[in-house]
Amino acid sequence: MNDFSDRSTAAATNRTASIGDDFVMIDGVTINDIELVKNLIDRPSTSIIVCRSGAIDLRIDLVQHTVESPAMAVTLPAQRAECMSISPNFEAVIINMSDRFIDMLNISSRTQVFMALRNNPVIQLDYTTINAVAAYREIIGKSISHATNPYRLEVVENFTRAFFYAGGFYFHELLDKRPTSFHNSILERFIDLVRNNYRQHRRVGFYADKLCITPKYLSKVVKQSSGQSAVEWIDSYVILEARNLLRSSYMTIQQIAAELNFPNQSFFGKYFKRMTGISPKEYREGGGIGTCRTERNRR
């Protein structure tokens, strides 16, 4: 049994088509599959949520996004995504692809498309495309079900590549929407630096030095371009990772404090409580309450 199966709900078994951890596709995901959604988008891989009815609220890299049908959301391996709420009438297909599988697709414009998706992770679809997704899902499901076929992965790879290029219109629209201003360029580079360094560095000066600008100028640009200060971006990444480790790892609080480069557990505890209102111990014992809410109602 692969890692995904170990962490997924039993109710999803009959709706799942997978080849190890390289490719996982689950049909008929609803509000009852909240833990399943959390597990999928928390994996260090590419996840695609095709929302066929209702809506789901996601927080991707600390920015709130509503995915309301018909629409698709894409989360990338380097991004942090959280499920915030799911509407009662939500129904979707979720596809999860490993980095190895993405590399196998050998998409010529992969880097540009992924950069565009990072800025615009939610794409509105028309029902013609939704029907195309249904056809793709059926083909992939049948291909994977032939367990004795040693080329199943290659078959899925080629159908997925064809589907990607068939939907290229949407991705080219994303490329056209990419922000090109100097300030947005600084913001993108700053967020990339924070994403790769927040465990070790929490001072704005570190990031300003990397960008060869002053801390004051960096703070001004980030605030104007994103609505959040540079410090808020850094703190949000640290707290998001702290919450994730408290909720889903077996690390002690002291080990988590060390992992996030705090001088000691006490310092980490005070920081966490200042940011969240509760202590790390209270958060862990409460099961990570507030990480995914289901109370939202939509018509």
CATH class bucket of the largest domain: Mainly Beta
The main pleated sheet reads as: 6 strands, antiparallel
Structural class: alpha+beta
Please trace the helix and strand order, writing H or E for each element: HEEHEEEEEEHHEHHHHHHHHHH
Overall number of strands: 9
**CATH T-level topology of the largest domain:** Jelly Rolls
Topology summary:
Blueprint: H1 3-7, E1 16-19, E2 23-29, H2 34-41, E3 46-53, E4 55-60, E5 63-68, E6 71-75, E7 81-86, E8 91-97, H3 99-105, H4 110-119, E9 122-124, H5 127-145, H6 152-166, H7 168-177, H8 182-197, H9 204-211, H10 215-226, H11 230-248, H12 253-259, H13 265-276, H14 280-285
Helix pairs in contact: 4-7, 5-6, 8-9, 8-10, 9-10, 12-13
Structural overview:
This protein has helices spanning 3-7, 34-41, 99-105, 110-119, 127-145, 152-166, 168-177, 182-197, 204-211, 215-226, 230-248, 253-259, 265-276, 280-285; strands at residues 16-19, 23-29, 46-53, 55-60, 63-68, 71-75, 81-86, 91-97, 122-124. The chain is an alpha+beta fold and 299 residues long. It folds into two domains: 3-177, Regulatory protein AraC (Jelly Rolls, Sandwich); 182-285, Orthogonal Bundle (Arc Repressor Mutant, subunit A), CATH 1.10.10.60. A six-stranded antiparallel sheet has the order 1-2-8-3-6-9, with helices on both faces. A three-stranded antiparallel sheet has the order 5-4-7, covered by helices on one side. Strand 4 and strand 5 form a beta hairpin. Helix 9 crosses helix 10 (215-226). It starts with a helix and ends in a 14-residue tail after the last helix. Mean pLDDT is 81; it is low at 1-11 and 289-299.
